[in-house]
Amino acid sequence: MLKRNMAILIMLFLGLASVCGCDDGDSDSKSSPATAELHYDGDPVPASGDGGIPGQTNEYLVYFNAAELQAYVGWEITQVRICYCESSFNPPTHDFTVNIYGKGTTTTPGTLLFNQAYTLTKGWNTITLSAPLVIGSDTEIWAGYATSIGSCWPASTDDNAYEDNKNWIRETAPTPGVYGEWTYHNLNIRIIVQE
What local confidence, expressed as pLDDT, does residue 91 receive? Predict the structure, then answer.
C-alpha cells in the first residue's frame, strides 16, 4: 500500500511539474526576435493623398534622427511599410521606387543605402530589404519612395497634425528640386526594426 501511495505521489508531482512549466533543461525552444514599427503617422485617409500633376515625379520621405533611434542601436532595419493611397482616382497598382538614405543634415538626406523598384497595390505594402541595415549610435534614417504623380494621387497620409521636421517631399522630375517639409499631414511610411 505504501509503495502504491508513493507511486501516486510521484506521478502527481511529475504531473504538477509539467503543468507549472518546469522542464528537464533540454528544451530547444528559441524566442523570436523583438521587432518594432517606427512611424509618425496614424491610419491612412483614402481621400487624403498627393498627386495629380502631369509629368511630375516626387519623392516622399520620413526622417528619424539619431536620438529617436537610440533605443534601437544594434538592431536592424529589415522592412519598410508604405501605404499606396486608396483613393478611387487611383489604379489598383502603381510603380514606386523605395529609397532609404543615411545621415545627412536635418533638411537633406545623406548617402543612398537602399533603392529598389516595386509595383504596389492599394493599401499597406511591406517591402523586405534584401540586406538589413544595422542601426549604429549615430545612425539617422530617411525612408520613403519616389513615384510618378501625373495620373493619380499615390502618396497616402493620415488626417492628423503633421510632426515637425519629419515628413519631406522633393520633385525629382522633370526638374529635380530641393527637399521641403511636408506640412499637411503625416505620410504613411513606416520602418520595421528587429533586434
Answer: 92
Q: Give me the amino acid identity at 154.
A: P
Q: Does 157 or 2 have the greater pLDDT score?
A: 157
CATH number for 33-194 (one of 1.10.287, 3.40.50, 1.10.150, 2.60.120): it is 2.60.120
Q: Which H or E run includes 36?
A: strand 35-38
> Which three cell numbers, joined as nine digits, stand for 180?
521641403
Encode burial over 160-169: b for 16+ CB neighbours within 10 A, e otherwise.
eebbeebbbb
Contacts of 157 (CB under 8 A, 6+ apart): 41, 44, 45, 48, 49, 50, 85, 184, 185, 186, 187, 188
Segment 77-92 shows an average pLDDT of 94
- The 10s digit of each residue's pLDDT in 28-73 is 445 678 999 999 999 999 877 788 788 899 999 999 999 999 999 9
Q: In this structure, what C-alpha cell is assigned to residue 29?
A: 525552444
CA dist 111 and 52 (Å) reads: 29
Give dist(CA 4, CA 95) in Å, integer. 74
> Within 10 Å of residue 47's Cβ, how many Cβ atoms?
13
